[in-house]
Structures are given as C-alpha cells and as structure tokens.
Amino acid sequence: MKRIVMKFGGSSLEDGDKILHVANIIESYFKSYSLIVVVSAMGKITDELLKASERAEKGDQDYIKSFTEYIKDRHIKALKASIKREEVQKETVKSVNELCDELYKALTGVALLKELTPRARDYILSFGERLSALIVGGALIDKGLRVKVLTGGEAGIVTDSNFGEANPLMEATFYQVKERLEKLLQDNIIPLITGFIAEDQYGRITTLGRGGSDFTATLLAASLKANEVWIWTDVDGLMTSDPKLVSNAKVIKSVSYEEAMEMVMFGAKAMHPRAIEPAMLYKIPIVIRNTFNLEAKGTLITDRVQVDKDRPIKMVALVKDVGMISLVGGSMVGARGTAALAFSTLAKQGINIMMISQSVSEADISIVIKREELSKAVNSLELNMLGKGVVREINYEDDVCVLAVVGAGIKYIPGIAARVLNILAKEKVNVFMISSGSSNSLSLVIKEKDSKIALQKVHDEFELDK
C-alpha cells in the first residue's frame, strides 16, 4: 500500500469545523493509503504563545491567567465542534485541561523568575501543536479510526540542543522513527505527530524553527521511505506570481526541488525551504494541496527538471520591506578583507545579508538587507569602516524591493536576463543591482514605486498565464 505523509497547517486547523473537515479528508484516504499525519498548532496559536511567554517574562501574572483560560476555551470549543461521541469528547476535554494546567505552570515559572530562556520558550511554544494533535486525534477516533498521538520527540525526531532552531541528528532520527512508527503502520494505526516539536539527546523539548511542521513531515517521510508528502494548506499550489498583485497568475503544475526552494525563499506561500531538503535527498515527491479545494490538483515537486523553451521561467515575485546599502571607494580596489569586514560587522549585529553584488573593479559593494535593520546596519558600517582610508562613502536606499525571476530555464537557455532587462527598460524601470544565485533565479533591485508594473510586465512577457 502506498505510504503518504500528510501535513496540515494552522490555516487548515483554525477552528472545530475546519478540524472536522480535516478529519473527513484523512478518513477518505485511509482505506487507500498507509497514512502518517502531521499537524501544526491551530491558526495563530503559536504567535499567541510567544506573546504570552514574553508577557510572563515581565511578571504579568494576571495576563497569564486570562491567557490560559482563553487557550483552554478555544480548544474545548474546537473539540466540541469536531468530536460528537460523548465518551471521546469527555476524554479529550480531560487531556486538554491537563495540558492547559501544565502551560499555566510553565508560564507562572517564567513570571516568578522573570527570565525566559530559549529552552523555556521552546517548551511553552510546544503546547500549540500538542493541543491541536489531541483534538485532531479525538476527531479521528470519533470516526472509528485507530490513532496514536505522539509529539515529534516521542515519534523519534532527535535534535541538537540549539533551542529555537534545532537541527535534526539525521542518523539517530531515521533509526528511532522507523523503530517507533513502523509497527504502528503495520497494525493499521495512524501515527498522528505534532509538527515543529522534537527532543534533544537529553529528552528536552526543542523546536525546529518557523515552518518546522513542514520539516517534521519530510523528516518522517525520509525515515519511513514514504512514497509522497502532501502539504495541505489554504492555497491551490505554488503560483506564477502573487495573485493579489498579478490578476492572471495561475497555479504551477510541477517544479523541481531546486525551483521550489527558490520560490518559497522568495515568498511563495506553501512550505518552508528547509523542509524540501530531506525530500530532495531521498527523491520523495511533495504535493502542495488546498484543504478547502479538494478538486484542485495542486503543485507537484520532484527531482525532474522541465525546461520549456517558450516559457523558460515559472515564477516572478517581489521581495518587499528591504533596503540596499552601497560601500564606495577607489581605495577598495585590491584592498584585502574589505568585504569580510563589512560582512562580519553586520554579523556581529545579528543582521542577515539577503543579496550581495560587487563590481569587478572592486570599487563598490552593494548588499540588500531587511528594511527594519537598515538604520542599525548603516550606523555600524559607518563606525567600523569610514575614516580608515578604504571606504570613502556609504549610501543607502530605503525605497527599493527585489524583483525575483525563478525557473530552470535561466540556467539552460541564453538570453533570459536580457529579456527581463529589456522589458524593464521599455517601462523605464531602472535596475540598481542584479544577482544570479543558483542559476535557477535572477534577482533585481528596483524602486518600490515601479514594483507592480515590473511584476506584471515580466509575468506577461514570459506568458506565465498560459
């Protein structure tokens, strides 16, 4: 029987009616497939838990009490809407109450100490997935299905102790997941696993970072040699562009792993970039599907690279809320370590560089960072690099964005960049910086005021709506 890992995101689990819909989907596929189910927290719960942990750090015990009651009420309301049998409902209510009491104690401990360690934050954030898994599990049991609810750590996912952004220890994870879940699958029991959560080697709860539920799904798929991973979300699949900005954007039928990774990095709403790697390594197809539009076929992500000469690119996107910094100086030519000093200066401030360009003359370096970090970055660079006889001036632009063009055709077909630049020139859109990374994408910095027309015209030039 074909083995499928299904992951349901927070938008698919926002309330009791949606959880019941998810349970119906799982039930409809259960007879045809061997299923492993991964769930995120209910919609927006993770953000609310993060806010509560920060309020707890300030010692706000009144907020903790009201917040815990809110969490309890929301989840009990959801389970009553999705679970009909009284005995199943009663048992699930009991489990939810116990978890909420545990959450209250954890938040109170933080409030008393007025200290929120990374380990404590991970522990508090884990309650979102643990609560939603109880309810989805109850809804499936209510339908007569055999289910085993497990946290990611209980399922066998083991990580290092980098709380907040833990890294899986692959060999240990593969061994433990297979050891703990294979028997359940053979007995026709659905393992229902919390996404996002794992454990380190000492049994302490860790989290895999934002988008970690997608990562959980592909890790389980690789460990259990699943045939496919289905990512259930609230969109029909990967799109040729943002439909809010490009009215004729459409769903992309299929892309390669590398193309998909570029697309999600540039903001395509579907899954987390890091989650693609385990599937890519073991050539496990991923399907992006819409929980609320079951007729939609979605987007298939595989190792197959398809290049259409008539439509060599597959997506055009905008990356907004960025700023550009330029370091200029004739003395930079041949001066060793200039770029390294700039990068290390920003790294010390915790600022990530999104895009880099340096002219062959070595007389200037341009970088793109998040706009919210622009002021801090410019101040740090000026303090560390001006007046030392190398960098003459540091300029910045805070009204720019990145136009990203994605598709394997960029690597295999000559002239793609020329076509993009030509259409932008026709629209009198100036390009301040250009970069081509993995050869599956082309990134261009333009003024934000030109972004919408640039996006639409490039989309039309490559006939992405056909």
Please tell me how large the radius of gyration is: 24 Å
CATH superfamily of the largest domain: Acetylglutamate kinase-like
What is the level-2 CATH architecture name of the largest domain? 3-Layer(aba) Sandwich
For the record, the CATH class of the largest domain is Alpha Beta
Helix run count: 15
What level of helicity do the residues show?
40-55%
Domain count: 2
Q: What is the distance, rounded to the nearest whole angstrom, between the alpha carbons of the first and last residues?
A: 36 Å
Indicate the mean pLDDT. 95
Shape: globular
- Strand neighbour order, sheet with most strands: 3-5-2-1-8-10-11-9
Description:
With 466 residues, the protein is α/β, with parallel strands linked by helices. It has two domains: 3-233, Carbamate kinase (3-Layer(aba) Sandwich); 315-461, VC0802-like. Helices cover 44% and strands 21% of the residues. It is built from 15 helices and 17 strands. Strands 3-5-2-1-8-10-11-9 form an eight-stranded mixed β-sheet, with helices on both faces. The protein starts with a strand and ends in a 5-residue tail after the last helix.
Key phrases:
Carbamate kinase; 2 domains; VC0802-like; 15 helices; single chain
Spell out the blueprint of helices and strands:
Elements: E1 3-8, H1 16-30, E2 34-39, H2 45-57, H3 61-82, H4 86-113, H5 118-142, E3 147-150, H6 152-155, E4 158-159, H7 170-186, E5 190-194, E6 197-200, E7 205-207, H8 212-224, E8 228-233, E9 254-256, H9 257-265, H10 273-281, E10 286-290, E11 299-302, E12 315-328, H11 338-348, E13 355-358, E14 364-370, H12 374-385, E15 393-406, H13 409-412, H14 416-426, E16 433-435, E17 441-447, H15 451-461
Parallel strand pairs: 1-2, 1-8, 2-5, 3-5, 4-6, 8-10, 9-11
Antiparallel strand pairs: 6-7, 10-11, 12-14, 12-15, 13-14, 15-17, 16-17
Helix pairs in contact: 1-3, 1-5, 2-3, 2-4, 2-5, 3-4, 3-5, 4-5, 7-8, 8-10, 9-10, 11-12, 14-15
